[in-house]
């Protein structure tokens, strides 16, 4: 390889490193803006209500019973000391069914938005009859409802099967939940079992979960939100998703949840066994921009390689500073994409940023090619390249396949165009720019 070509390739390698650093800065800016958006969403949730998990009802019994404590002293003598032991327990419903409707809206802080909801829930629970063992004394009986963020509780209406209205009180007097509300019960009601109907309105943001604590659980949910992401340990048994919203139904029993053991798997205010839905944004501008920036270095290489190929085939010299300006035009595309997507949505932002950069490169290429026809062809080529990138971003499942074929096609095109190029002499006969020739001759 001749020295001229070696020096050119070395200069392009250094330029590629500089531009790769610039792409990394844009990627850092994407993450910074995404962190700012997440902070705004958290701030809205702090003032409204966080993600919600609803659990219950559970029957909690405060129980005591006489016991004998056996003690052995240093002399080996045994003493029996009567004490009062704790036999408190939690009883899960035998049947629990629920229907819910999720009304989704948006709140803004600056240019950032958070999705909030108001869930209207109707629950029906059947709790088994209970009889204390001989010697046991039931001191208190409560129905417990766990709510991860009680600030979201807007309305509570409870009634027994006999039409008796039950009164809910804030806080949890005992049992597995840390936050929520409870309903005091008459201990005499426990002998015949209890059927409970509840109507709740609960506000939250981002996600709604429900803990299937009963032996048999049947829960259905519907909403006008068209982009649900089903969360938790159980997918819906049936679901329908369309432009008008979604509906889903879960049926879960003890064999799936592990029965009483699920109450021991508690993490903070959240039960680890749950089902629910997240309100995701399918066109999250920051996620898609971040994915686009990951192809940034590839775009830089393709751009530098394209102009280098043009330089070799057309025998027209391109100065390293011209390579640098063209490369920065590619980097600027990703920065424009980030800035515009915060205001217009990703698709429109991509169209505007790509159009601006294609026109910029084509206009600059006019000076290199010397005519508008060649500049139009250059712009069309880069327009196709940006179109290909958008297809990669839109087709997430086939991105690898499409990307591999795109690179293969570009490589094949390069090999075809350079099939007759003498690489040993490439770069030796590059003419000097006209201005430089005039300066040497003094004309």
Write the layout of secondary structure elements.
Elements: H1 3-47, E1 52-72, E2 78-86, E3 89-91, E4 95-109, E5 112-127, E6 137-147, E7 153-160, E8 165-166, E9 169-170, E10 180-184, E11 194-205, E12 207-211, E13 216-223, E14 228-232, E15 238-242, E16 245-253, H2 254-257, E17 266-267, E18 270-271, E19 275-279, H3 285-293, H4 296-314, H5 320-344, H6 346-369, H7 372-394, H8 399-417, H9 434-441
What would you note in describing this structure?
There is one protein chain. By secondary structure, this protein is of the alpha+beta class. The chain folds into two domains: 3-38 and 286-434, no CATH class; 51-282, Immunoglobulin-like. Helix content is 40%, strand content 33%. It is built from nine helices and 19 strands. It has helices at 3-47, 254-257, 285-293, 296-314, 320-344, 346-369, 372-394, 399-417, 434-441; strands at residues 52-72, 78-86, 89-91, 95-109, 112-127, 137-147, 153-160, 165-166, 169-170, 180-184, 194-205, 207-211, 216-223, 228-232, 238-242, 245-253, 266-267, 270-271, 275-279. The strands form three sheets. Strands 1, 2, 3, 6, 9, 10, 12, 14 and 19 form a nine-stranded mixed sheet that branches. It has an eight-stranded mixed sheet with strand order 8-7-11-5-4-13-16-15. It has a two-stranded antiparallel sheet with strand order 17-18. Helix 1 (3-47) runs antiparallel to helix 3 and helix 1 packs antiparallel against helix 4.
